[in-house]
Amino acid sequence: MSRDLKSRVSTWLLWAAVVALTTVPLVWVGHGPVDEQGTAGELFQGADSRAQDAITRIAPDYKPWFSPVLEPSSNEIASLLFALQAAVGAGVIGYWLGLSKARARADADADAGAGADPDRPS
């Protein structure tokens, strides 16, 4: 097998793995978690609402200390905002990593070029 063919095969296998890791959980989990009454809950219900339900069962007279600044209209919107926050964070981390690598490469190139003859064109 040539090197180019191996590279193409590994690329296709990686893409197949990404597609499988994305679709299998969606097919596998077809409904939300079942509550005490036996009805299926919301699929996108987060840990916040579960914790709120547990607190109300334990201490029904509990009053929250503060209210949220922005209340999403649905759980899907809350999931979207969470995903957007994660994407922005990943973008910032990726930018920082790329910038650090580029600076390190530029420093290495500058150090390698420091010993060269300045009168000789490169």
From TrEMBL:
Q: Does the keyword Amino-acid biosynthesis apply?
A: no
UniProt keyword annotations, A-Z: Cell membrane, Cobalamin biosynthesis, Cobalt, Cobalt transport, Ion transport, Membrane, Transmembrane, Transmembrane helix, Transport
Chief location? membrane
Source species, domain of life: Bacteria
Keyword Cytoplasm listed? The answer is no
Q: Which Pfam families match?
A: CbiN
- Quote the pathway field: Cofactor biosynthesis; adenosylcobalamin biosynthesis
- Topology relative to the membrane, per the entry? Multi-pass membrane protein
Q: Which GO terms describe its cellular component?
A: plasma membrane
Q: Which residues cross the membrane?
A: 12-30, 77-97
Question: Which InterPro entries does the entry link to?
Answer: CbiN
Which example biological process does GO assign this protein?
Answer: cobalamin biosynthetic process
Q: Which GO terms describe its molecular function?
A: cobalt ion transmembrane transporter activity
Tell me where in or outside the cell this protein is found.
Cell membrane
Quote the subunit structure annotation.
Forms an energy-coupling factor (ECF) transporter complex composed of an ATP-binding protein (A component, CbiO), a transmembrane protein (T component, CbiQ) and 2 possible substrate-capture proteins (S components, CbiM and CbiN) of unknown stoichimetry.
Q: Which family does it belong to?
A: Belongs to the CbiN family.
PANTHER family from the UniProt entry: COBALT TRANSPORT PROTEIN CBIN
The record describes the protein's role as: Part of the energy-coupling factor (ECF) transporter complex CbiMNOQ involved in cobalt import.
NCBIfam families cross-referenced by the UniProt entry: PRK02898.1
Q: What is this protein called?
A: Cobalt transport protein CbiN
**Source species taxonomy:** Bacteria, Pseudomonadati, Pseudomonadota, Betaproteobacteria, Burkholderiales
